[in-house]
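Deliverable D4.2, example record:
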Amino acid sequence: MLVRRFAPGDAREVSDLIARTLRETNIRDYSAEYLENDIRRLQPEDIEKRASRQHFYVAEEGGRIVGCGAIGPYWDKEDESSLFTIFVLPEMQGKGVGRRIIGALEADEYFLRARRVEIPASITGAPFYEKMGYTYKGGVTTPDAEGLLRMEKHR
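Output generated by the structure prediction step:
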């Protein structure tokens, strides 16, 4: 498996991967309406915009993209960063893809310069992030108004 930086030609495949993962995996924790709203905001052109503002990575195996994730500054701060858009194809979950993506993100300059890294985590993803050493910001373990859990890691 190769984890590499996003290339412009990856946008459609990444968008499709995200939509499929939301519909098949996150559906246990969110309504279809909530997920379809997210999918509408994660079309190829949206992915390209994200990749232009953040360091976006893809995990590739056998010539296909099986996972993705990004890191960027937290509200333009130099000493804080955020992880975004972390998804793994349903059939690849539990096979180390997410760990490899987190490894790449945590080796990125945005992570290395940060004293604190936050993740706006889905309910579905929170147990994985806990395994990766992230904790609930302020000890809050219930979703916020956006349906997300704020998780963080201090360095």
